């Protein structure tokens, strides 16, 4: 009998997935949010939370010795909790919103947009979590998390990414629409006061951009990415700020001037750059030249491919970027420049882009056109794009080499990452027929590899 019970309980534990369960409840008016987290078995050692979160925490219940411990910055320690324990906390959103910080929480037209870890405190052990979310009537939510078909309420399972990876969640009066793009959908949420015609501008802008990025691999690289468009009123440019986030799932956030036309959003490079980041997995910030280089390369190549830029104009944009990168090169190696932070941004972005141009051209020449940066990324996507881990640059380049069976990427890494000079493009330019002029770049149809130059701007045939 005992054996039978043991077998039964074993099979039961196999069928019910072990996961921590979070119940999240937003108060009507969105003044606060309360969370109950119940841990499966032994609780995690601590919960990661936003550095400012403790200041807005009304209470933490279920841990001995609190609330004194809650009112401290940093992780929330869970030492001494029994198995299967539950912990509750409440965060005062009104007070956080009163600081009106883009980096913490904003209120826009009946919706709030916050860093998720202001109130969603998760473990640092990448445990599986099931989140049930209760919203006030008539409100919507946008998260980067995978939504599950639940019988009651909204149920999500965040990707098991490191707790420190950032993410944003919008709750309230939002416009949410799914946009079908080759192979998947984007989950677009528009935050702020916008008209129906502005909504359709954003929808069209994201659709065109995502289709253009999808053309690299034949399908959009990230399933169900969260896209946040935040309307912040009149600005000096259509998209003053945007970035990609990976916490709990892949997302991009765009702060936009909603008064601009579709033509102005089309002409802006930002969205092509950000969505191109999604062609790669998370890359360590110590190798930001790689992720920013790829996005900077494709932001121009893809606009050349879909006709937003003429062929020569796309090459001119790349050339102008390389020139900015050269001017910002001060003898520090690319590795050192990347460590030094934002001061070296042009050096970092355009050195990476130059390496990708060299890699793309070399692969096409070595393989007689059978391979390219597009085909390597496509094969990488099929085998290895894991959303929950971060890659070092050399590791990723070694993976690209394994796919292509050449040593193009690691050779470029060894040549340029330790080098104090900007990557020399003279030979690549000569082969492709790129002739820098005083004002604009000339294209030489007689160059030995001018076909490769044309093919780079044509892209894979659909
Ligand atoms: Zn970028």
Describe the structure.
- This protein has helices at residues 2-15, 93-97, 196-217, 262-267, 270-277, 288-305, 311-327, 334-340, 345-366, 373-384, 393-404, 408-416, 426-432, 450-458, and strands at 20-26, 32-38, 46-48, 57-61, 76-77, 86-92, 105-108, 111-115, 122-123, 129-134, 140-142, 146-148, 154-157, 168-172, 175-181, 184-191, 225-231, 241-245, 251-256, 282-283, 390-391, 434-436, 441-443.
- The chain contains 14 helices and 23 strands.
- Helices cover 36% and strands 23% of the residues.
- It has 462 residues and is α+β, with helices and mostly antiparallel strands.
- The protein is globular, with a radius of gyration of 24 Å.
- The protein has three domains: 2-159, Immunoglobulin-like; 177-277; 282-458, no CATH class.
- Helix 11 packs antiparallel against helix 12.
- It has a seven-stranded mixed β-sheet with strand order 4-6-2-1-10-13-12.
- Zinc ion binds next to helix 5 and helix 6.
Tally of discrete structural domains: 3
Rg from C-alpha positions?
A: 24 Å
Helix content: 25-40%
The beta-strand count equals: 23
Structural class label:
alpha+beta
Give the end-to-end Cα distance, rounded to a whole number of Å.
63 Å
Shape: globular
């Amino acid at each position: 009998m005992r054996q039978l019970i043991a077998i039964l309980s074993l099979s039961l534990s196999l069928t019910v997935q072990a996961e921590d369960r979070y119940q999240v409840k937003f108060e009507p008016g969105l003044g606060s949010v309360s969370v109950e987290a119940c841990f499966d078995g032994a609780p995690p050692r601590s919960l990661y939370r936003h550095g400012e979160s403790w200041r807005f925490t009304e209470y933490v219940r279920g841990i001995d010795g609190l609330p004194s411990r809650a009112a401290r910055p940093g992780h929330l320690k869970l030492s001494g909790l029994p198995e299967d324990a539950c912990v509750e906390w409440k965060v005062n959103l009104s007070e956080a919103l009163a600081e009106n910080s883009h980096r913490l929480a904003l209120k826009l037209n009946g919706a709030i947009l916050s860093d998720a870890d202001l109130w969603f405190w998760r473990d640092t052990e990448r445990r599986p979590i099931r989140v049930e979310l209760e919203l006030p009537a008539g409100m919507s939510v946008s998260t980067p998390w995978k939504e599950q078909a639940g019988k009651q309420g909204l149920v999500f399972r965040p990707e098991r990414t490191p707790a420190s990876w950032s993410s944003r969640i919008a709750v309230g009066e939002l416009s949410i629409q799914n946009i079908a793009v080759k192979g998947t959908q984007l989950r677009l949420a528009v935050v702020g006061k916008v008209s129906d015609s502005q909504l359709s501008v954003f929808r069209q802008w994201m659709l065109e951009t995502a289709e253009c990025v999808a053309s690299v691999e034949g399908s959009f690289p990230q399933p169900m990415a969260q896209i946040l468009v935040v309307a912040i009123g009149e600005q000096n440019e259509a998209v003053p700020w945007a970035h990609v986030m990976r916490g709990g799932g892949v997302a991009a956030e765009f702060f936009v001037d909603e008064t601009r036309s579709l033509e102005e959003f089309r002409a802006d490079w930002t969205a092509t750059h950000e969505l191109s980041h999604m062609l790669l997995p998370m890359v360590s910030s110590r190798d930001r030249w790689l992720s920013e280089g790829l996005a900077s390369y494709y932001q121009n190549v893809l606009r050349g491919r879909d006709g937003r830029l003429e062929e020569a104009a796309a090459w001119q944009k790349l050339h102008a970027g390389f020139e900015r990168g050269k001017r910002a090169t001060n003898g520090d190696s690319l590795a050192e420049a990347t460590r030094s932070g934002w001061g070296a941004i042009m050096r970092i972005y355009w050195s990476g882009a130059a390496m990708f141009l060299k890699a793309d051209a070399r692969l096409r020449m070595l393989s007689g056109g059978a391979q390219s940066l597009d085909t390597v990324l496509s094969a990488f996507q099929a085998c290895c794009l894991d959303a929950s881990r971060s890659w070092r640059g050399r590791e990723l380049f070694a993976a690209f080499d394994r796919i292509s069976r050449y040593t193009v990427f690691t050779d470029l890494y060894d040549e340029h990452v330790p080098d104090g000079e900007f990557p020399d493009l003279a030979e690549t330019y000569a082969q492709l027929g790129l002739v820098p002029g005083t004002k604009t770049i000339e294209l030489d149809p007689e160059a030995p590899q001018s076909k490769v130059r044309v093919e780079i701007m044509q892209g894979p045939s659909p």
